[in-house]
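Working notes for the structural subgroup meeting. M.R. asked for a predicted model of this chain before we commit to crystallization trials. I am recording the input and output together here so anyone reviewing the notebook later can reproduce the run.

Input as submitted:
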Amino acid sequence: MALLYMATSKTLIQILFHFMNRSFFITLLFTLCILCCSAQPYKYQSLIDTLIEKISSEQFILKKDFYPGMFHSYRRLAAPPYNFQPDNNIFFSAIGAFTLKNMKPALSNTNQIALDTIIKKIVATYPYFKHKNGLPYYNFWPTGAPIMPNSLFFEYLTTIFIQGEDADDSAMVLMSSDTDDSTSAVLKNRMNTISNLGIPNRNIKSTFKRFRQYPAFSTYLGSKMPVDFDFAVQCNLLYFTYDRKMPFSKADIGTLALISKMVEERLYMSRPTYISPYYVKSSILLYHLTRLMAAFNPSSLEAFKPQLINDLKLLQREKNNTMEQILISTSLLRLGAESPPLKIASIADFEKSNQHKFVFFQARPAFWYRSPLKQIFLHLPYLNYFFYSPTYNKVLLLENLVLRD
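Returned structure, recorded in C-alpha cell form:
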C-alpha cells in the first residue's frame, strides 16, 4: 500500500512537473517572440525619431547663401579644379518636402507634427523661385538671380545664360504645398503646350529617332528652351497628373507610352545617361519609376515588375555606395520584393559612410545636342556639374526606414 501511494505520488508529481515545464516553456517562447518582433521596429523607430530631429536642425535659420528653411546644397565641377560652392537652388528642398509629405501617414502623431513644421518652413521659400509674373512655374535658382551662384564666371553671364522655368521643380513645389486644382491646371496646361509636338514645329532633336514622334513632356517650361526628354523628370510629371487627379492629356498618354517603351528596352540599364541627363544613374531612374508604380500602378508598366526586380537585385550586388544601396532597397520594397536590412544603426554610421560622395542630380549642358554629339559631350566632365545635399540624403534614408517599419 505504501509502495502504491509512493508510486501514485511520484506520477502526480511528474505530471504536474510536466505541465509546469510545458507552461513555462510556452510562456518563455511567447516572450521571446514578442521581444524579437518588437526589437527591430524599436531600433528603426529610434533612428527615425533621431533622423527627423536632425533634418529639422539642418534647415537654415539665418539668410546667408540660402533662405531660412531651405536644405543645404552645394555643387562642384565634375573635373579638377572641383570648386565646391554653396548652391541656392529650390530642387533639394522641394523634393525633400514632397518625400516627407508622402511618408507622413506612416509616422506617429509627434513625428507628423515635426514633419509639418519642416515642410511649412520649406514652402515659405517657394515665392523666391516663382515666375516673375506670378504664374505657378518655378526656377531652379531664385527668380532674377544669377545662375550657378558663387561661380567664377557664370554670374557675369546672366544676360546670356537665362534660366528657364523647370517642370520638375514646379510639379514638386505644387505637390508639396497642397496647391488648389485651378493652380495645378495652369501648370498642366503649360506642360501640355511645351511638350514635344505640343505646338507646330516644336520637335525634339536630342533623343533616339524612334522616340521623336512621341508627344511627351519636356523638362523645361520656357517656350524658347529646346524640347528635352528626361526619363526621371517624366516619371515625376506623370506622378503630378495622377496625384492631382487630372484627366490624361495627349502628352500624358505619350509620356507613359515612351516610358513603357524605354523600360521594355531596358534603357535605364544600358543608356541611363542618355535617357536621363540630369539623374544619370540606373538606381536613381528606378527609384523614380518605382515611386510612380507603387503610388498609381499604371497598367502598361505592371508586366515589367519581374524584370525590374531582377535588375534591381543585380544593381544591389554591384553597387557599393550607401545612397545607391538605400535607393535600390527602397525600390525593391515598393515592388513588394525582399531586400536585406541596411547596415546603418545610427546617424553616426550613416555620416561616416560614403554617402557624401553620392550625386543625386547633375547639370549636363549637352542635353539638347543631336546625336552623336550628345553621346560625346554628355560625358565630358568639364561641361558637367554635380549637385549634393547632405540633408536630402538623410530624407532618403528616413524614407527607407519608414517603408520598412
